[in-house]
Amino acid sequence: MVDIAVVGGGPAGLTSAVYSRRAGKSVLVIEKAAFGGQITWSPRVENFPGTVSVSGTELGDRLLEQAMEQGADVELEEIISVIPPENGGCFTLKAASGASFEAKSVIIATGAKPRKTGLENEDKLIGSGVCFCAVCDGAFYSGKPVAVYGGGNSALQDALLLSEKCSMVYLIHRRDSFRGEAKLVEALKEKDNVRFVLNSVIEELVGDEELTGIVVNEDGQKHLIEIDGLFVAIGHMPDNGIISGIAELNEKGYAISDEKCTTVIPGLFVAGDCRTKPVRQVATACADGAVAALAACSWLDA
Ligand code: NAP
């Protein structure tokens, strides 16, 4: 049994491992996909304190290295349920593989996953033209026309990255101004192969086996844009399925928590993008990791 099990190996989870280890607790970080989490999808991170510019994968690697250097154990497993202690026992975490782990306290740092468009055909065309990660899949569309959907930093970054390799990038956004940083918008305006399609929503994904185009409703006018790839970047949804039955979630599925990262279950903490908070950035995820770890350590000591 470990003192603290951390579910999720992104910036929040790995930072909580560093702080917990430095407080002398035994720690196990359990990640289902890639250590580094969502940040590994970011081509460049330029707003992490003390780091002028770093790729998301490198930042993820550094966070993992630091947590392991401090003595955290790590496992690649998908946790499918978290069972709170009964009669003063410990938490039990069950994995999809059949493995199970025991811990005196748990920090949930599961982050968020990309929001889908909900359009007909979407599920069928994922991997056949519909993508959610420009860093991972952009190279497949070299020299081809693509579209990016969304107006936040993810969409702007994706469009910039894709403009380096694709013949044309349509940036489709439902409003006439962007939620993402002005600096990224300015950089996109400099690109000859980027076209802003504003006040527009995608109404149809065209293609049976492969995506061949999208029907866009632009200010009430419908038109077809022929593309080979659509990169959906319309925000994220919290990945809180494993605590939905035990912790309190708000109407959008975020775990309700305060600045101490506590939940209604003693010994269960939440950190990072999966919890209610006003700003979701790598810096704030790391801040949560530190807070949740120290709260867990205090709870264990008490
Ligand atoms: P986001 O900031 O929530 O932006 C989502 C965008 O998608 C918004 O423009 C939104 O439109 C649009 N949208 C939402 N639902 C939609 C729908 N159903 N149909 C069409 N459009 C829809 O999400 P994000 O870009 O993934 O970023 C998430 C967080 O990570 C943000 O805090 C962001 O700053 C941060 N981030 C930071 C970096 C970085 O600093 N390096 C990189 C990526 C992301 P409206 O604007 O109309 O609401």
Short description:
With 302 residues, this protein is α/β, with parallel strands linked by helices. Helices cover 24% and strands 27% of the residues.
What secondary-structure arrangement, pairings included, does this model have?
Blueprint: E1 2-7, H1 11-22, E2 27-31, H2 56-69, E3 73-76, E4 79-83, E5 91-95, E6 100-108, E7 112-114, H3 122-125, E8 130-131, H4 134-137, E9 145-149, H5 153-163, E10 168-172, H6 182-189, E11 194-197, E12 200-206, E13 213-218, E14 221-226, E15 229-232, E16 236-238, E17 268-270, H7 282-301
Parallel strand pairs: 1-2, 1-6, 2-3, 6-17, 8-15, 9-10, 9-15, 10-11
Antiparallel strand pairs: 4-5, 5-6, 7-16, 12-13, 13-14
The protein binds NADP nicotinamide-adenine-dinucleotide phosphate.
Q: What do these coordinates show?
A:
The protein is of the alpha/beta class and 302 residues long. It contains 7 helices and 17 strands. Strands 1, 2, 3, 4, 5, 6 and 17 form a 7-stranded mixed β-sheet that branches. It has a 5-stranded parallel β-sheet with strand order 8-15-9-10-11, covered by helices on one side. The longest helix has 20 residues. The two termini are 18 Å apart. The model has no long low-confidence stretch (mean pLDDT 96). NADP nicotinamide-adenine-dinucleotide phosphate binds next to helix 5.
The share of residues in helices is 10-25%
The DSSP helix count reads 7
Helix and strand pattern:
EHEHEEEEEHEHEHEHEEEEEEEH
Instruction: Estimate what percentage of residues fall within beta strands.
Output: 25-35%
Unreliable segments (pLDDT under 50, ≥5 consecutive)? none
Give the C-alpha Rg. Answer: 21 Å
What molecules are bound to this protein? NADP nicotinamide-adenine-dinucleotide phosphate
Average pLDDT metric: 96
Shape: elongated
Distance between the termini: 18 Å
How is the biggest beta sheet arranged? 7 strands, mixed
> Which structural category fits the helices and strands?
alpha/beta
How many distinct beta strands?
17
